[in-house]
Amino acid sequence: MASSERANNHDEHSSAPLDVLRQFARRREMRPPTEVCELCSAEIAANHRHLLAVSNRGLICVCHPCSILFGDPVAGAGKYRLVPSRYLLLSDFQMTDEQWDSLMIPVNMVYIFHSAIADRVMAFYPSPAGAMESMLSLEG
To answer: What is the pTM of this model?
Structure first.
């Protein structure tokens, strides 16, 4: 075999393993990214529970075992609170655009809870920087 034939044959064989690896890399890129528990890094389903980080009022995605662990209010020294999965549809509730605008919340979502630390009702809405507190008086 001539040296040029050996070089071509060598190039074909040496690139074959790389082609196989490239196929795996392409397949991996095409898979949708999976979400992971922010406490233990376990993979979690699209429909998962959340914890409220009391110190910064941020929401944390958690797996089922972590949600059970932190379901007790004294777990984690009170650093986290399990966000209830129960919600109610208020089918007769009506609010005009003007009433919503008077709340001065720039998005169409808000979560409201009673803060034991602040001993008052607080309202937060999502933002790119994290949860933002509405500074409106919620006394009423």
So the answer is: 0.54
